[in-house]
Amino acid sequence: MSLMLLRENRNYRWLMSASAVSNLGDGVSMLAFPWLASLITRDPFLISLTAMAGRLPWFLFTLPAGVWTDRVDRRKLMIRADLFRFAVTLGVVFLVLAAPPPVASPGMAIAALCAVAFLLGSAEVLRDNAAQTVLPSVVRAADLEAANGQMWTVERVTGHFIGPPLAGLLIAMALPVPFAFDAATFALAATCVWLMVIPARIAPARRSFRVELREGLAWIWGHVLIWRLAIMLGVINACSMASLTMLVLFSQDILGLGAVGHGLLLTAGAVGGVAGGLLAPGVARRWGPTRSLRVSLVAFACAYALIGVAKAPWVVALALAAEAGFGMLWNVVTVSFRQRTIPDALLGRVNSVYRFFGWGMMPLGAIAGGLLVSTFEPTLGRETALRLPYLIGGGIVAGLAVVGYLILRMPDADNKP
């Protein structure tokens, strides 16, 4: 099915190619940005500010992004967002060249890095909402699980399997190199989307921004299962960001890893994501959507707890792989369900409301991770404080798993609710 989809669907090939190259750049920046921040300062709170700045747009702009996505040509929106990210990331190259770390004023340098992360995150909100919204117009409804699974597998391979260790090698060459590489991938992604040929979409007549936004809010409010999934995703993502933000310090201070080692650690986690992307459509069919989500929640809780007590890099790698693999299963089930269920005219707005709750919690999680470590480090010590985001996150998601067992009842993939 997947190979036929790639072979027969030209637009899907270009969309996947755009996703592959842009996620390769994201994988490089996933290591390069926090590593640059850790060269500027060792303060966990300041480092968490850069992660929060990159995710804050998901809280601020997700709702209006949905209205914009339903109003405009989604393909052109993706192109413009990628070109904007190209220009901003190219600016980082010049910043690093002009003032390489260590710097005289770490606070000012972190502020500049936060500004860049905020701009990139703002463009990502528009681009990702448009990309997820455009997929149902590129493939048939029956192919959505296969298409989503394949897209996320490629994203994991490039963004998590290849990107982080490549970033370690590029950093070893020169600090500006990974950011130049990231900029080039955005330009190439924009070219791939430009080569897609999609019939012009006739958008509904424009009305008041508030009226259009209210329609999206009303639809998701009337669909209890979808807003429950959005809230649960928000809790998961908050815990994930608290953990991920501190991982660069966890790797250095507890595991004793350098840039290349940290990149390989992220790559090991990506192995689980790749396996999850390949297996998730079949597992979802075999287990059914309800069981798939319940098992995923338990796996997330166990992964966080395992990292919280781990002392060896291979244990952390195993936990990251499990988290990523079951994350893929969660995504295949929930995103395919939304794409199949939400009307096309409302898809951008409802997706944006969903992501407001599901992704808007990420900046809060990022800053919470830094505050948690900074607050408890003086009394508990550096190592114990760095373990707290994982141990507390595991406990929170374990509670969420209990709630999910009680309230999650997903329809079969072949049926609409």
From TrEMBL:
CDD domains: MFS_MefA_like. The keyword Transmembrane helix applies. Residues 226-417 form the Major facilitator superfamily (MFS) profile domain. It is found in: Cell membrane. Its main location: membrane. Coiled coil: none annotated. Signal peptide: none annotated. The chain crosses the membrane at residues 12-33, 45-63, 83-101, 107-126, 161-180, 186-204, 225-248, 254-280, 292-310, 316-335, 356-376, 388-408. One of its GO terms (molecular function) is transmembrane transporter activity. GO terms for cellular component: plasma membrane. It is a multi-pass membrane protein. This is MFS-type transporter involved in bile tolerance, Atg22 family. It comes from Jannaschia pohangensis.
